[in-house]
Amino acid sequence: MKDVSFRITAGVFTAVALLVLGCGQGAQNGAAVSSDQDALKGKGKSGPTLTPQNSGTTNSLISVSAVNARVVWASGRNGTFTRTTDGGKTWHAGVVPGAETFQFRDVQAVSEKVAYLLSIPITAPSRIYKTVDGGQTWTQQFEAASLDFFYDCFAFWDRHSAVVLGDSIAGRLPVLRTLNGTTWQDIGDNLPPPLTGEAGFASGGTCAATQGHRRAWLTTGAPPQTPGGTGTARVFFTTDRGQTWGVTTAPIFAGVDAAGGGFSIAFRSARHGFLAGGDLAAAGVVDNFARSSDGGRTWVRATPAPIPGAIFTAAYAGHGRGHEDDDDQGEDEDGHGHGEGGSIRVVATAPTGTAWSPDEGRSWKLLEGVSNFWAVDFGSQQTGWLVGVGGIITRIDF
């Protein structure tokens, strides 16, 4: 929902461009980050090692995409992107020419040379850019029809095909799709009609997910549809690259003032995935995590991560990146992998805190003092990155 919070205008649920949780540039780039970096702990008996790195920028980073344990891209405010090809030993930051006032709320990395950026509408309509030379040059591929269109996130099946979530407008979700990595078409008429004011959260670039060659999921939130009610978290799902869609509700607390819902979604197989989110206005921990074992058609409430308010982004540690379209080969009937101890690690983060689960949300461990992060992604089962306020970036190794 545009900027991780909402406003109600003429009864329509829309997202705002300036908002809570320090989304203003001053709050995002504040010097208060250093205390959190100093608080990062080394590896305990079972926890991860956290290693702060130099992102090459002081502009806040909002999204991160890891190709593998060496190649990672991140993006954020003031037209900023940054990239490493050596596992984070060195980062090289840049600004997309002509996009100096933009906020790139999502980056999708294909390789060390190829990546896509998605901006939200602030001084110009939402745009999509692509580079094929490691960020030396960028090509604008798409611009929304007006500032009224707000695109939140995208997810790729492969280097040439992707789906983009847009907030509802005029009674439809203007979802985009590309099948050639160059042109983007509106397929919103293929989706069920939205609830009044239904929208996604541009809070880290993970409100859309893909798995295999055909499956995709989009998660949203909608304000209360009746006075005194609560908001609704929903998940849209497709098994045919967006030709047809189903939709279901999920047990994520979406708040009473239009500030919550599903923020982040991921699937590690055709059937098994998670949904994370919550309520931005909540001072404490709410129902913020759920699991599905049937491809996103139904959801079961899981143990909440110990993060107040809403989880901005969550990620599997290495799972969910395969392109196989089979039904969970190598898992037992409960969906547990047969890898190291059957563990399925998940890391969840938000400006209010960071936590990790060794068992896909059945239990959680808070990473003390680790806050001010917006997004997390993993390049392998062992290695990932957290990015956030003031250009902070931290490598996380299990």
What key attributes describe this structure?
single chain; 398 residues; mainly beta
Describe the protein.
This protein has helices at residues 25-28, 33-39; strands at residues 6-9, 12-15, 49-53, 61-66, 72-76, 80-84, 92-95, 104-109, 115-119, 127-131, 139-143, 151-158, 161-166, 176-178, 185-186, 208-211, 215-222, 232-238, 246-250, 260-267, 273-279, 289-292, 300-301, 313-316, 346-350, 353-357, 365-366, 373-378, 383-388, 393-397. The chain is mainly β. The protein has a domain at 6-29 and 63-315: Kelch-type beta propeller (Neuraminidase, 6 Propeller). A hairpin with a 7-residue loop joins strand 18 and strand 19 (246-250). The radius of gyration is 19 Å and the shape is globular.
- Cα radius of gyration in angstroms: 19 Å
N-to-C span: 32 Å
| Biggest β-sheet: strands ordered side by side in the sheet | 3-30-29-28
Helicity range: under 10%
**Hey, roughly how much beta strand do the residues contain?**
35-45%
- Main sheet summary: 4 strands, antiparallel
Q: Which stretches are poorly predicted, pLDDT < 50 over at least 5 residues?
A: 4-44, 320-326, 328-341
CATH architecture of the domain at 6-29 and 63-315: 6 Propeller
Mean pLDDT: 87
CATH homologous superfamily grouping of the domain at 6-29 and 63-315: Kelch-type beta propeller
Structural class: mainly beta
- Top CATH class of the domain at 6-29 and 63-315: Mainly Beta
Shape: globular
Number of DSSP helices? 2
Topology (elements, then pairings):
Elements: E1 6-9, E2 12-15, H1 25-28, H2 33-39, E3 49-53, E4 61-66, E5 72-76, E6 80-84, E7 92-95, E8 104-109, E9 115-119, E10 127-131, E11 139-143, E12 151-158, E13 161-166, E14 176-178, E15 185-186, E16 208-211, E17 215-222, E18 232-238, E19 246-250, E20 260-267, E21 273-279, E22 289-292, E23 300-301, E24 313-316, E25 346-350, E26 353-357, E27 365-366, E28 373-378, E29 383-388, E30 393-397
